[in-house]
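@channel anyone free to eyeball this complex?
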Amino acid sequence: MSADDGATYAPASMPRPVVDPGEFVIAATHLDHGHIGGMTEALIDAGATLKWVYDPVPERVEKFREAFPQVRVARSEAEVLSDPDVHLVAAAAIPSERCDLGLRVIDAGKDYFTDKAPLTTLDQLAAARAATERTGRKYAVYYAERIHVEAAVLAGQLIDQGAIGRVLHVAGFGPHRLGIGRPDWFFERERYGGILCDIGSHNFEQLLHFTGARDGQISSATIANHAHPDTPGLDDFGDAHVILDNGTTGYVRVDWFTPDGLSTWGDGRTFILGTAGYIELRKYVDIATDHGPGQLLLINGDGERRIDATGSVGYPFFGELILDCLNRTENAMTQAHAFAAAELSVRAQAQARVLTH
Amino acid sequence: MSADDGATYAPASMPRPVVDPGEFVIAATHLDHGHIGGMTEALIDAGATLKWVYDPVPERVEKFREAFPQVRVARSEAEVLSDPDVHLVAAAAIPSERCDLGLRVIDAGKDYFTDKAPLTTLDQLAAARAATERTGRKYAVYYAERIHVEAAVLAGQLIDQGAIGRVLHVAGFGPHRLGIGRPDWFFERERYGGILCDIGSHNFEQLLHFTGARDGQISSATIANHAHPDTPGLDDFGDAHVILDNGTTGYVRVDWFTPDGLSTWGDGRTFILGTAGYIELRKYVDIATDHGPGQLLLINGDGERRIDATGSVGYPFFGELILDCLNRTENAMTQAHAFAAAELSVRAQAQARVLTH
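replying in thread with the prediction:
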């Protein structure tokens, strides 16, 4: 963000590694979703030392080792969980299996960092809440579409600085490209959790975060398989209207209809309305421009500004998470918040009306 | 829209006057809302002959005459309604009075063209439906944010041509600037009808139009006075989740929070998701660019395109309405559609949950 933006509001300084090599040791296990790569890399960038990788599928381990050649290959999950050096286990299991894995990690006395959605049922949620309360261990969640998107991080900082007044409403659009080569579980609702639980979870988390709410209620939700009759277990569409506990509202729309002609996987957008201005995030593409990803539009009493967030604020979540684990604090994200987002996601999916033509 | 857009899809030819002078005579009465100017001008551009103006407030009549010096000033509403030359009465009364006026116009054997929202209660809706069914007269509505916005007209044409496949979802954002100098009725909910009925009606109409639905249900709605304690009758925010009768969904958000720094009165947007692409409308401003209003973003299998709709398609509604009145057809907009949008607007307002902090 250059001085040319005329910005009154300044991004926080770029995060740096928060620990020295060996001070915070992590393992990566259950590589079902490719997000594990971004999760691991971001932790390493924040100072973590990657010791172990484990997955039952050798091909996935090999691919992971290409990206992280320093890693040791564990022969079993138990080898990872029994290593007293390991502080945190990062994992991207099949969504329906993420909670069971988390409970094993927590029972082993370690903190857990899972890809979103962190779980897929209310029973799992109750078990996860109980485990964290009993042990004090963390069940942290990689809500990537906020914590790993600089425009979204910058938006949070601008809101904290009062750039748009009091936030009243957040709308999030999360279109994704279906592509080819998705694994079987991707089309089985019981395993991926349904679209509002799966990719919807990113946006429920953002509703809570940007409105500053602690919790919310799903006022209305729908899901559909509009145009993929060969994979009836796929929700290709979902939306939800949310009333937050602080008198604000939000709306989430997610789908698998990114057109072939879009230059990236999805035109993720967030609109944050405040009493004194609004922010629009064009996270991954600013359509039909050469602006690149990471565009933040800020409109308030000072005028209209487009801010390129790329390189502005980095991803402070990961260093904060490391310090939270070491210091038993909650600066990166509170456990209550991570679970509140999960609860909205699971409840939205469970109560969604199924659309038919 | 230039050839440089590489557009496969072409706008229809620009509309021209559909009748000669004197063939279709109109009057303008009840000038409470400034929209009457745009309504009258658009009808004149389509060939209508303006004969009369009537309003009980002389200052409003004088202002209208400055814009339309050819007009004759009627001494009463009755003088207008009793003139056999007059085919149609255009009016922008206080919303709660629009239906009574329409019933008088229809009882006089003339067609009625009212500013939106066309009415504010379900009782009025029943009376208006009965009157149109009994007489065959028209109760037409100026849903300006679609029929008088070239980007929106072009969007409809592109959808009809299959540019984005089957439409699945429409989201409409209608922020407005409160400004100063609004009349008293603007802050009295009984008279303006509430935010979802008033400015919301534009977007409910677009949900029906772009999805091709005949009707819908309000699944969830909220209203609030978030930040205007001095005018408690003002809803400064409203939103609604709608399930349409053809298995599609929509979402509407309206508010009076346009920041002072925005270069126009409101950043109206529409997002139309189809099975084969999507359209975004930046109706009045493309933030932080010099593109001007009327920008249509089209993303489908052919790529990402921004199309400047200004000067591309004009406003065919008005000529079609004139011919509909002369020929007793329904090409501009069906009566059922105009009332379905009104019903969604009134029902959304009536069932909206009132948000509190």
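from a first look: Chain B touches chain A through 57 residues (CB under 8 Å).
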